[in-house]
Amino acid sequence: MAGDSRIFMNQDMEIGVTPRELKKIPKQARDDIPIATDRTRLLAAEIKKPRQRYMEKSGKCNVHHGNVQETYRYLSDLFTTLVDLKWRFNLLVFTMVYTITWLFFGFIWWLIAYIRGDLDHAEDEDWIPCVDNLSGFVSAFLFSIETETTIGYGHRVITEKCPEGIILLLVQAILGSIVNAFMVGCMFVKISQPKKRAETLMFSNNAVISIRDEKLCLMFRVGDLRNSHIVEASIRAKLIKSKQTKEGEFIPLNQTDINVGFDTGDDRLFLVSPLIISHEINEKSPFWEMSRSQMEKEEFEIVVILEGMVEATGMTCQARSSYMDTEVLWGHRFTPVLTLEKDFYEVDYNSFHSTYETNTPSCCAKELAESFREGRLLSHPSNANLLSVVESEKEKETEEKEDQDEEKANGCQDASKVDGPEPIELNGANGTAGEVKDNLLL
Q1: Which of 26, 116, 122, 137 has the smallest set of CB atoms within 10 Å of its CB?
Q2: For residues 90 and 193, is the Cβ–Cβ distance under 8 A?
Q3: Nearest CA among 207, 224, 311 for reference residue 260
Q4: Is the domain of 265 the same as that of 339?
Q5: 291 with 364: CB under 8 angstroms?
Q6: Rounded distance, CA 397 to CA 394, Å?
Q7: Residue that is last in its domain, among 143, 166, 192
Q8: Which domain holds residue 367?
Q9: Do residues 157 and 130 lie in contact, with contact meaning Cβ atoms separated by under 8 Å?
Q10: CA distances (Å), origin 23, targets 2, 17, 20, 26, 423
């Protein structure tokens, strides 16, 4: 490798290109590089290494934001920042805000008493202090708590001879109400978030591909475990796949819409029982020219998003999941889970993720559509490989055409024998060549 590097650098210098310094690989990256002497072992190491998911099955996105320079933007939306915090940090902020507020105003009450000299005349009965029975910082802190939380004054109470104390009382009451509204609002929103409602919305572990109404379809199943339903439920899907443009630009996580019924309204669900969501693989589908063998070689991820309003609260709920290319089963269908009982329909969630194999062509949807259009698949309804059917049909057509051409050729020969002129012998009973020529001229 060192020799190769020197060769490349010498070639660059010969053509006038300044060689760039090779960046040092981080230790973790160096440790992750498999050490092997042959290409087979390197390929085996790459195959064993699991690919990183863009989204977990639970709906959590595996995206971390690093090197964020403008962190002040989080403070510009402080309410959302507090709501998004984890519970332990949220409770810590909640406690710290109230404690700091009480300490701040307690210090102001103590400072007023200190400036007025109330602390020096604590035992003077003729002295009228700003706050009765305020003898130090601890009592000022307790008076601040009583004022802001509206517990009610007892032993300590503000007097009428302290205008600065009256103004401070108004300020603390107003700011205390604002703090209460802000912090209690954050806690209420965090408690009432419908994130946990998504825990009872289920997605099948696998997606399947099979034929529906003579069309190749990609399908997955969704269900709701609760009796309270999701109102205005809708479903959408995205294909996450690397892409290279015609100009050579590489897009590592390109997002492509997968139509699950947007144009027909099938994406709006009445999610009372489990439903199978179907994507018809047609000309507009990203899987239109992708056969089974090609799909096994591709690397992609299908992200599905289910949205709706919680019936009990009216808040919007979103559940997410994803399917890797290895989780898409070609030639499978979902096992039925709905059975009719005496007075109701029963859903068997034990079979929610179950699938069974079915005869499905291994070709792409484009070839399948052409075969159905030409009627070549009708005589082979149980054949699992459409390509062999197409080839056999083409061979039959070729053989039939050859037979027809041969029959036409034989027919022409027979006709020439029956209707054609008698053969002319140049030397024989019919005369010489000159006589034959004269006869032809006549």
Answers
A1: 26
A2: no
A3: 207
A4: yes
A5: yes
A6: 5
A7: 192
A8: 197-374
A9: no
A10: 15, 18, 9, 9, 92
Q: What is the mean pLDDT of the chain?
A: 79
Residue 51: which of 305, 418, 323, 344 has the closest Cα?
A: 323
258 Cβ neighbours under 8 A, 6+ residues apart: 218, 236, 237, 238, 239, 279, 285, 286, 302
Residue range 242-274, pLDDT digits in tens = 988 889 899 989 999 999 988 888 899 999 999
Q: How far apart are CA 110 and CA 135, in angstroms?
A: 9
pTM: 0.64
For β-strands 328-330 and 207-212, DSSP reports them as parallel
Supply angle C-alpha 119, 124, 129, rounded to 5.
50
At CA 262, angle to CA 354 and CA 330, rounded to 5? 30
Q: Report the length, in residues, of the chain.
A: 442
DSSP strands (E only) in 213-363: 215-224, 230-244, 250-258, 268-269, 275-280, 301-310, 316-324, 328-330, 332-334, 338-340, 345-347, 355-357
What is the amino acid identity at position 301? E
